[in-house]
Each structure stands twice: as C-alpha cells, then as structure tokens.
Amino acid sequence: MKPLGPIPDGFTAVGGELAVDGVPASVLVARVGRTPCFVYSRAMIAKRIAALRAAMPPRLALHYAVKANPLPALLVAMSGLVDGFDIASGGELAIVSGAGIDPSRLSFAGPGKRDEELSAAIVAGATLNLESAREAERALAAADRLGIAPRLAVRVNPDFDLRGSGMKMGGGAKPFGIDAAQVPALVRTILRAGAEWRGFHIFAGSQALDAAAIAETQALTLTLAAQLADAVGEPLPACNLGGGFGIPYFPGDVPVDIGHVGAELSNHFANLPQVLEHTQFCIELGRYLVGPAGVYLTRIVERKLSHGQTFLITDGGLHHQLAASGNFGTVVRRNYPVAIASRFDAAPSEEASVVGCLCTPLDRLADAALFPRAEEGDLVAVFCAGAYGATASPAAFLGHGPAAELLL
Ligand SMILES: Cc1ncc(COP(=O)(O)O)c(C=O)c1O
C-alpha cells in the first residue's frame, strides 16, 4: 500500500461528491461536456494570491509565470490579480498579448531565444531577461534594425542554488543566465548602447517547500544584486528575485511557511544598501499561485483484476498529467493526491492503482493506494493539476487528444 499526497485545502463534498467552488464533479463534467477535463477555480487562486500578498512586504511585486498555466481565460483573470507576467517564448508572448494583457507588463526569460522572438518582444515593449552575452548582442542588433530602445535585464547565473528545490536553475555550469563574474561588463555594454536598463533577474530554483531555504536564497540574491550593481556603478532600477515557492504534492509534504519568508524579506528591505534603495523588487511564481486551484477529472472506463491487483483504468492519463504519473523530473515515483471524485466522502476500502488509457506501464496516476471501491463510470480526481498539467504533458501522444479545460 502506498500513501497518497495531501489534498489541497478548499475542496468539499457535496452530495457525497467532490465539489469545486461548491459545484459537484458530475455537474462540472456535464458543464464541460466530456472527460477528461481540467477544472480551475478562480476563487481559490484569488484567495492564495491575497494570502501571499498579505504575508509579503508591500514593496514586493508579484509576477505570474505563464508557463505554469497559459489558459487565456486564466490569464485574463490573473491580469487583475498580479503585477506582471513572466513569459518563456514567442508563443507565450502571442497568447498573453491575445488575452489583452499590456506587453509592457511582461518579462521574457529562457535560453535560445530566436531573433524573431527577440524582435517581437522588443516591438511589444516587453523586458528581455538576457540569458547570454551573445543573446545581448543579438537583441541590441535587432533593436538597432527596428530603431527601438529595448528594455533589457540580465539574468544572472548565481553561484548558489535554492536548497531543497525540485529544479535547480542556478549554481555552477548552467544553460540559464550569465555567470555572475561576467555580468558587470555586459551591463556596461548594454548601458552604452542606450538600452532601457531593467536590472537583474536571479532565479535560483523551483519547487522548494522549506521557507528557511527560500529566505536564505532571497538574502543571497539581494547581496549578489547589490555587489553587481556596485560593480556596475549605477543604482539598480529593478530586481526579479526569482521564485521557487513549492506546493505539497507528495505524502509528508507541508506547505511553505510564507509568513517566515515574508518576515525575513521585510527585514532585508528595511536594511537595503544605497544601491538598492530605489530598486523595484518582484518575485515570479507559477505553481504556487495556480497549482492547488486545479483538478483533473477522468472517468473509469473499466475495473480490471490482474494477479489479484485491482486496476481502475481511466479515459485520462499521462498525456494530460505527466507530472502525476511521475515522469516529469522525479527520481522516485510517489503518489500525487488522487481521489474517487464521485465517492469523495466514502471510506477507503480497497487497494487499487489508477491507470490511464495509454499502452505504457508509465501511465499510472496512482499506484497501489487505498480508495473507496470504485466502479466503471466513477470519476477520479487528480489534485494539484492547476500548474504544469494540460500544457506540460504530451497531449498528442497516441492520438487521444487534449483534455477540456474549464475556469470557474
Ligand atoms: C525563469 C522561471 N521563472 C518561473 C518559473 C516558474 O516556476 P514555478 O512554477 O515553480 O513557480 C520557472 C520554472 O521553471 C522558471 O524557469
């Protein structure tokens, strides 16, 4: 028997079924018209953002990392809730612009930006977080051709990473950012070229639950930003402190103590060196804002017994929920929070594995876990599906097609 991850707060049972914002799963599926589907709660996202803002110093702006969930309706909802957006491609630039969001609120990070993407971002007025000296050269050349002063920031590859993070994006040799030692000279080149200087982007890692580690990384980031700004000899206009706030996915995971992170950051903000006194600070978060506010609903097509083990075979799978299947960067496969949505308040009574409809043993949404007895036609819910679900999974694999998406 393997334990399941913790179900995020805010979900209830209505008439015995899982309900999102008080609406039972069967009603949600009827509204969407089919399974599998993702359902996201705007109210839960707004609540999370309000709690986060209350915990952080007011001076800290909040940006949304679009890669976590780029559904246009969700972006429109986010537009009134966050201060800026982090994009990672020309495609995301088009989606965000198409959602009516002012491109001057965007910053564009990510290695391997093509010349067309650099040009499109410059024309739109987005800030480019430059990932290499060569990219800076290409951006300045594109800006020259266009006759526009580009908004340029430098993504720094710091000499530290985010302790305990699921994905490390800094420390040592990395394809991301410019090694700290090379940054001052590059910034001087950018200033000489007449670009609009937008400061530093320092993103050390992602999916950390340890508040002390996040606070420590933020402190190191502020120190590094001050050192680099001093070396450049100019006050720093802006500094993106990265993100890294994780969410509990697995058994034993606990939520980040945002009160601790906010209190530490407030202390640092109260004692900033002169070169950072007027700096605009932000963090950029994806999964923390939207992950727990989404659920993936899939229907059991068949109950099957094999060598005494029960398999609940669903119409969904890793082609929509790669992360829950354990194939998106985890070393040891552990269970996400998963429940029988149509029997949400029933007592668990049998061990079963929830699998998808793909012909691969990798397609497992819950492994040997305890559930109420479920039958064909029952709905299964996979939680923590609001981030890195629909667009971070190989939806074209085996031709089943994408899941539907609904924003409540
Ligand atoms: C540059 C950058 N910003 C933001 C994020 C979002 O991270 P998360 O969704 O864990 O907050 C990532 C994730 O890899 C990233 O690389």
Blueprint (SSEs and pairs):
Blueprint: E1 12-14, E2 17-20, E3 23-24, H1 25-32, E4 37-40, H2 42-55, E5 60-65, H3 72-79, E6 84-87, H4 90-98, E7 106-108, H5 115-124, E8 127-130, H6 133-146, E9 151-157, E10 167-168, E11 178-179, H7 183-192, E12 196-201, E13 205-206, H8 211-232, E14 238-240, H9 258-270, E15 280-285, H10 287-290, E16 294-306, E17 309-314, E18 338-340, E19 350-355, E20 364-371, E21 379-382, E22 404-407
Parallel strand pairs: 4-22, 5-6, 5-15, 6-7, 7-8, 8-9, 9-11, 9-12, 12-14, 14-15, 17-19
Antiparallel strand pairs: 1-2, 2-3, 4-16, 10-13, 16-17, 16-21, 18-21, 19-20
The structure holds pyridoxal-5'-phosphate (PLP).
Pyridoxal-5'-phosphate binds at residues 65, 68, 86, 109, 167, 169, 203, 206-207, 243, 284-288, 387.
Written account of the structure:
The protein has helices at residues 25-32, 42-55, 72-79, 90-98, 115-124, 133-146, 183-192, 211-232, 258-270, 287-290; strands spanning 12-14, 17-20, 23-24, 37-40, 60-65, 84-87, 106-108, 127-130, 151-157, 167-168, 178-179, 196-201, 205-206, 238-240, 280-285, 294-306, 309-314, 338-340, 350-355, 364-371, 379-382, 404-407. The protein is an alpha/beta fold and 408 residues long. It has two domains: 12-40 and 292-407, Beta Barrel (Lyase, Ornithine Decarboxylase, Chain A, domain 1), CATH 2.40.37; 70-285, Alpha-Beta Barrel (TIM Barrel), CATH 3.20.20. Strands 4, 16, 17, 18, 19, 20, 21 and 22 form an eight-stranded mixed sheet that branches. An eight-stranded parallel beta barrel has the order 5-6-7-8-9-12-14-15, surrounded by four helices. It has a three-stranded antiparallel sheet with strand order 1-2-3. Helix 7 (183-192) packs across helix 8. The radius of gyration is 22 Å and the shape is elongated. The chain binds pyridoxal-5'-phosphate. Pyridoxal-5'-phosphate binds next to strand 15 and helix 10.
